[in-house]
Amino acid sequence: MSTLFALLKEVASPTIGLGCMNFSHGYGSPVPEPEALRALDEAFEMGYRHFDTATLYGATANEQLLGKALESKRGQVVLASKCGMAIDPQLGKKVIDGRPETIRQQCEASLQRLRTDHLDLYYLHRLDRQVPIEESAGALGRLAEEGKIRGVGLSEISAATLRRARAEYPIAAVQSEYSLWTRNPEIALLQACREADTALVAFSPLGRGFLTGTLRDPARLEESDMRHHMPRFSADNYPRNLRLLEGLVDIADELEVSPGQAALAWLMAQGNDIIPIPGTRSVEHMRENLKAETLSLDAATVSRLNAMMTPDQVVGGRYSDAQQADIDTEDFDQAYFPQSPRNDWR
């Protein structure tokens, strides 16, 4: 059993966790604090026990929010945060910095904001290409040895980087985007995680809202919504991607569940070492997502879903060129399939 699953077992947690970024970062205006605190309290009451945040989100505001929301519940939750990518207050922009001294400083600051003496899981948010991963992983390992964190994590990294990092210190979890319409971990990362008993924590398991079937026109999103800068959501690409939802909606109707619940069930059917952390501001959607925990798909349904939204069918990259430059994750291209047509990827 991986370190992360052991932690979840300690608090009798469901597999599905809660990504908390949406309250403060990335998807339009931040949720007012009183409303956000009420939503997080309801999330706990309905059963969520794994809460995920980061130094970056809301320029530390999200960690401060979770500190207030979870302080009285700290011993009953698995609390995860991230370092190595933050908003520099002097520059006013995002900076990636994986130096050991930065990791330590950010960890100490996160502990204060989160009102706790330790984090259950602490990720390197992005690979710093100027710092060997062994140095960053070693710094995280020293924090674990000191009791400041219980598990070391990495985010948006490749299988090769994971193998180098775990030679320095055991990696409890890797966070990567994984969903029906984002299959990148299946190239190599999922296998590398399984080699080392490392959990794969799937962020954006509902395709940043796409797989819920409720986002029909991205142009109506707030101007500050990050999806405006993602090629899959562009005015040219999104209508073509919407057609891919028809099969998922049909299966969801057959199962008498929502498309989002069917998508989460598909993801969990890919392996019991995969932990989805869907993010939402809506208490109703939190409840809907958590119900997918009990939804089991038969092999025929999983096979039907496997054939949908394959990389050759999805139109547009998941990140802009600038965003893509910041990540280390493998991508579907001819480097991985030099002799095969794109639809033979599986």
Automatic annotation (TrEMBL):
Pfam families: Aldo_ket_red
InterPro entries tied to this protein: AKR, Aldo-Keto_reductase, NAD(P)_OxRdtase_dom_sf, NADP_OxRdtase_dom
One Gene Ontology MF term: oxidoreductase activity
Domain spans labelled NADP-dependent oxidoreductase: 16-307
Keywords per UniProt: Oxidoreductase
Recorded GO CC terms: cytoplasm
Keyword Repressor in annotation: no
Domain of life: Bacteria
TM ranges: none
Coiled coil: none
Protein name per the record: Predicted oxidoreductase
Organism: Aidingimonas halophila
